[in-house]
Design a protein that fits this description.
Elements (H helix, E strand, L loop, with lengths): L11 E4 L6 E4 L7 E3 L6 E3 L7 E3 L16 E4 L2 E15 L2 E11 L6 E6 L2 E7 L15 E4 L2 E20 L8 E9 L2 E7 L5 E9 L1 H7 L23 H26 L3 E10 L8 E3 L3 E3 L4 E9 L4 E11 L5 E15 L2 E7 L1 E9 L2 E11 L7 E9 L5 H29 L6
Antiparallel strand pairs: 1-2, 3-4, 3-12, 4-5, 6-7, 7-8, 7-12, 8-9, 9-10, 10-15, 11-12, 12-13, 13-14, 14-15, 16-25, 17-24, 18-24, 19-23, 19-25, 20-21, 20-24, 21-22
Length: 429
């Protein structure tokens, strides 16, 4: 039903002077050109005699994905598809074609749908100029509506195919210079025709599913291929959120780490001196007296202090629970070398080594120690073993930081890769 005070919209027809076929005209009063749906001749809809402006001579024939005459609601407004054209740019010898659909509502301005490789945009012509002047030449960025847009591409577009009716003069072979600026999901575009007239428009990236639903089209829209100029990144906003959360978790981990450092008692539970003679194999294995590890489950540090001098020794420890037989095993290479070369003193290694065993339960324990040395001619080595209960450790904190940082790092990398794919298709790739 027509709105009160508004006349109903009628569909009229004209006969093509070229082939005689009747062609529907849905936008009488607006249509400037009409394309015969039979022979594809372009007709002058403003001439009462309906003259032929251009005969269609090319063999190419395109079938629009959205048939002319389709009606539906997009962005809460009813539209009818009345025109269709195929356009093309050539960049570095490669042709890129896209399709444009003209949308008509008798009580609103014309709108457009554009589609390239499954990527759709809803387009409106601007009535106000963007910041930076009326022409797009030489601007690396433009602004409109408080939003800054970066230059993406400048190219010459050629019309390859037209169908339906248009409120402007349109011909196959027409060329315009298009300049695009992006701020996903928006794209600000200028088209400069042969008469140097500039038309500005604003596009909004729209999913094919939304268009198919709004126009009640059968089947499914074509799947998007690649990354389009104003396609919104799926990582937009998520990366910043993930880094903020990571910073919060890292701060919590740091507080827990500091509390752990402060609360660690570092109490000695066992200490004893030993000697190892590389020439006596029977001295390579021994068992210590039993000692008590009290308190809560916590880290235990085993310290090996030696008198090594240009020597090395291997020492293997097994901390064994006397009652349960549970063993915590660790092996260490201890070495210390020093000397003078070209008048410069040098050292390598250290005669003292420490290793921590995390989360050892309380109980009665003993150490089983196995030693080995590399130089059979060396003098006996003396070493002191000390066991310290409830020591502070930082390994868990380092591991926690790594685990906290991995998700935002991966998200940042994926976001960067997405943007790289976008901009490699631009003039700045």
């Amino acid at each position: 039903m027509a709105a009160q005070g508004r006349p109903p919209v009628s569909v009229r027809s004209v006969n093509c002077p070229n082939c005689g076929a009747a062609t529907a005209v849905r936008t009488f009063g607006h249509a400037v050109n009409v394309v015969c749906q039979s022979c594809r001749s372009i007709l002058d809809a403003t001439n009462p005699g309906v003259t032929i402006l251009q005969r269609y001579t090319e063999a190419m024939k395109e079938e629009p994905l959205i048939p002319l005459g389709t009606r539906g609601k997009l962005l809460e407004t009813e539209y009818e598809v009345v025109g269709f054209q195929v356009r093309q740019i050539v960049v570095d010898g490669v042709s890129y074609q896209w399709r444009e659909y003209l949308l008509f509502n008798p009580y609103r301005e014309f709108r457009y749908l554009t589609e390239y490789a499954g990527h759709w945009n809803f387009v409106a012509t601007l009535n106000a100029l963007p910041g930076g002047g009326p022409t797009p030449e030489g601007a690396a960025a433009r602004s409109y509506g408080g939003q800054r847009y970066r230059h993406f591409q400048t190219a010459v577009a050629k019309t390859l195919f037209v169908l339906g009716e248009f409120p402007w003069q349109v011909r196959v072979g027409d060329t315009t210079t298009g300049v695009d600026y992006v701020a996903p999901p928006l794209m600000l575009s200028a088209e400069v025709d042969s008469d140097k007239e500039v038309t500005w428009s604003l596009s909004r990236y729209t999913s094919g599913d939304e268009i198919w639903k709004g126009l009640s089209l059968p089947g499914k829209p074509p799947r998007p291929d690649g990354v389009f100029a104003d396609q919104p990144s799926p990582f937009r906003g998520a990366v910043g959120t993930m880094w903020r959360r990571a910073a919060l978790f890292a701060a919590i981990a740091m507080v827990l780490w500091i509390a752990h450092l402060v609360s660690a008692r570092g109490r000695q539970s066992f200490a004893q001196n030993f000697a190892f003679d590389p020439k006596s194999p029977q001295d390579t294995s021994l068992v210590t007296p039993v000692f008590e590890l009290d308190g809560r489950p916590s880290a235990v540090e085993i310290e090996t202090a030696t008198n090594l001098d240009n020597q090395w020794m291997f020492v293997g420890y097994a901390l064994v629970n006397e009652e349960t037989g549970q063993a915590f095993e660790v092996a260490r290479d201890v070495s210390y070398y020093h000397g003078v070369e070209d008048g410069e003193s040098w050292t390598e290694g250290s005669p003292t080594d420490t290793v921590a065993l995390p989360t050892v339960p309380p109980g009665r324990y003993f150490l089983r120690i196995e030693t080995e040395g590399g130089d059979l001619a060396a003098a006996p080595m003396r070493y002191r073993v000390r066991v310290v209960r409830d020591v502070s450790t930082s390994l868990w904190f380092v591991v926690a930081l790594v685990l906290i940082a991995v998700p935002p790092i991966l998200a940042t990398w994926r976001s960067s890769k997405f943007e790289h794919r976008r901009w490699q298709e631009s003039d700045h790739g």
